[in-house]
Amino acid sequence: MLRTLTAGTIALAMLHTSVQTVQASAWTLERGELRGSLAYSYADMDDMWDGDGSRVSGTIDRVIQDLAILMEYGAADFVTLYASAHMQRVEDFALTETGLGYADLGLRVRVFNRGGHVLSLQGEITLPGDIDSVPSVLLNQGEVEAELRALYGYSFDVAGMPAYVDVQGGYRWRNGGPANELHLDATLGWQPDPDFEALLQSINTWADGEGDAGYDYFRQNKVQGSLVFHATENVSIQAGGFWTWEGQNVEAEEGFFATAWYSF
Q1: May I ask the CATH architecture of the domain 2-263?
Q2: Strand 48-49 to strand 55-56: parallel, antiparallel, or no bridges (unpaired)?
């Protein structure tokens, strides 16, 4: 049951075109287990949330496409190593950039696992890529960054069917202008059928004050819904959409994503 419960949460932050990396669930992989995924997301941004938290239409014209590759490896039953890389295409008015968006190296350590409850700690380093000409808080600004994150998961049954919640809180140190960030992400997963899984996710970012070089305080609150199809014991496919329902001094992202993953 744990395989299917944790499968969909691989894409918890996959759709993010910001500096946040792919986040798996609080559950770690078994020793020697290897898992990979490939995800595509399309984010369309025509509106902005202004400094008062009001949505202003037609202020920008930006599209960000992201192709992310993730590999995870169970170095021990309680330690998972991961690495990811993002290829991005950013279209911003007359400017178009295509190249390596950023890459991440991370380590997740499980510190508690009992009675369906699991708690893990995660640390990662973000390496900059080629996309750094658009002054957006959603994009890496060509600097090395770091994050610490706590992950809590709980698995249970709903009407006799597997379900889980996954809550993650983190702090990201950023360079290149944008302020450091506070993150709070939550996932509710339910599996009404062995082959299908439904997920509802809340993805939230708050700046820790104002940034440098003209970057104001910002916040972004997004909701995401998706379905996961477990094609085989080793292959799953996820598809869904996302929408920014509230924000401040940040783009209003909305779009869709698709993820395929394979357990070796």
Answers
A1: Beta Barrel (2.40)
A2: antiparallel
